[in-house]
């Protein structure tokens, strides 16, 4: 049913400035400006990220409005924005403040509702953007640069983390392994690219034995470090000679750690609608193994489009749409938080 609920979503938690517009749950535009400046520093520099957000936010919002054919004021009911959603956290506090302050100012000037969105819950709800959508309840393996979680999602506003990493996130495991291989930041997508031509069985890295549904990746990183140190002592060009096999073997272990826990979560909960989300869900090895595991075990599997896996504002707009539809609108005084409780 159409009722012209038009949400403008803003994402600025890390190093992407993004804006998306969604009408009645349908994404009309999804604009992202990435910050290349961090590459030379080998990681995101918070101060530089905040400054870049300040430079990018107006053109990004302007482009999202134009592409969607929407307006902030005037226009018809099908054109006029009537709700603003923004990322409240978790994330870099200075980056979050830029998006939040812009969102609050817009909502105040336009006298329309404002909705704060949890970035990690939005990664889960990215699965509700396109059809076919998972029916509730579903499980989501949410894997990003800062988080690794298994989330039980009973409804769009009722989610619970049932497993999470005790140390590094899966994205960090990719990025730190890539750094050990001498690859630039962020190394996750590069490991994915090199792994395509490599043998995943060539080097076997250990799988940590962590009880329950929690994860740990710090031991893997240390094992890779010691393994490389040993090999490089014998052959200084070991990495150059074996890069695709190294990438395929590292990727295969990270993916098996993730999927073994996910299978355990399915057995424990009995839920068989299974999603993945977050930047690492863009990994081609994870997408392929996840789909195969789903087929083998009779799960209904769902994977967001690439553009909705890594940080984006479409997931913020869709989360805002569902939160607004369930009646949660907040005061203009609502702020940001580097860490957010569920
Ligand atoms: O969700 P996201 O875009 O930002 C956070 O909320 O953290 O996730 C970023 C993480 C980075 O660690 C990046 O290396 C990883 O996702 N990533 C990938 C791939 N694309 C992004 N890791 C492995 N393979 C990929 N194709
Ligand atoms: Zn993210």
Question: Would you write up a description of this structure?
Answer:
- By secondary structure, this protein is α/β, with parallel strands linked by helices.
- The chain has nine helices and ten strands.
- α8 (284-297) links the parallel β9 and β10.
- The model has no long low-confidence stretch (mean pLDDT 94).
- 5'-O-[(R)-(carboxyoxy)(hydroxy)phosphoryl]adenosine is lined by residues 14, 144-146, 171, 174-175, 186, 188-189, 192, 278-280, 282-283, 310-311.
Compact summary:
It is built from nine helices and ten strands. With 342 residues, it is α/β, with parallel strands linked by helices. Bound molecules: 5'-O-[(R)-(carboxyoxy)(hydroxy)phosphoryl]adenosine and zinc ion.
Describe the structure using short key phrases.
342 residues; alpha/beta; 5-stranded mixed beta sheet; 10 strands; binds 5'-O-[(R)-(carboxyoxy)(hydroxy)phosphoryl]adenosine
Count of distinct strands: 10
Q: Kindly report the oligomeric state of this protein.
A: single chain
Note the run of SSEs as H and E. EEEHEHEHEEEHHHHEHEH
Main sheet strand line-up? 3-2-1-4-5
Q: Enumerate how many helices there are, as a single number.
A: 9
Strand percentage lies at 15-25%
Overall structural class, as computed from helix and strand content, comes to alpha/beta
Q: What is the approximate shape?
A: globular
| Bound ligands, each once | 5'-O-[(R)-(carboxyoxy)(hydroxy)phosphoryl]adenosine, zinc ion
* Mean pLDDT level: 94
Could you describe the largest sheet, including whether it forms a barrel?
5 strands, mixed
Would you identify the regions where 5 or more consecutive residues have pLDDT less than 50? none
Q: Give the termini distance in whole angstroms.
A: 30 Å
The helix fraction, in percent, is 40-55%
Rounded to an integer in angstroms, the radius of gyration calculated over CA atoms is 21 Å
């Amino acid at each position: 049913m159409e009722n012209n609920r038009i949400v403008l979503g803003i994402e600025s938690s890390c190093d992407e400035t993004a804006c998306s517009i969604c009408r009645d749950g349908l994404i009309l535009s999804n604009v992202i400006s990435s910050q290349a400046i961090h590459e030379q520093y080998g990681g995101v520099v918070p101060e530089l990220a905040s400054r870049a957000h300040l430079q990018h936010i107006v053109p990004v919002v302007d482009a999202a409005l134009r592409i969607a054919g929407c307006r902030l004021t005037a226009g018809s009911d099908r054109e006029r924005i009537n709700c603003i959603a923004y990322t409240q956290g978790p994330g870099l506090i200075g980056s979050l403040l830029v998006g939040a302050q812009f969102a609050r100012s817009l909502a105040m000037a336009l006298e329309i509702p404002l909705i704060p969105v949890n970035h990690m819950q939005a990664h889960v709800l990215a699965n509700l953007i396109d059809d076919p959508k998972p029916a509730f309840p579903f499980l989501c393996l949410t894997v990003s640069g800062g988080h690794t979680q298994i989330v039980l999602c009973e409804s769009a506003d009722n989610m619970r983390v049932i497993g999470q990493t005790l140390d590094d996130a899966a994205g960090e495991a990719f990025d730190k392994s890539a750094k050990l291989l001498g690859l630039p930041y962020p190394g996750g997508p590069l490991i994915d690219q090199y792994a395509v031509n490599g043998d995943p069985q060539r080097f076997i890295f250990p799988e940590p034995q962590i009880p329950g549904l929690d994860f740990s990746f710090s031991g893997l990183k240390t094992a890779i470090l010691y393994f490389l140190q040993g090999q490089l002592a014998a052959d200084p060009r070991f990495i150059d000679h074996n890069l695709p096999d190294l990438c395929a073997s590292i990727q295969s272990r990270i993916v098996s750690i993730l999927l073994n826990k996910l299978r355990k979560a399915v057995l424990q909960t009995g839920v068989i609608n299974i999603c993945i989300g977050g930047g690492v869900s863009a990994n081609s090895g994870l997408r392929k193994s996840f789909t195969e595991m789903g087929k083998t075990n009779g799960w209904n599997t769902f994977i967001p489009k690439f553009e909705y896996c890594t940080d984006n504002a479409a997931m913020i707009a869709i989360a805002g749409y569902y939160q607004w539809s369930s009646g949660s609108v907040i005061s203009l005084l609502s702020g940001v938080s580097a860490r957010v409780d569920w």
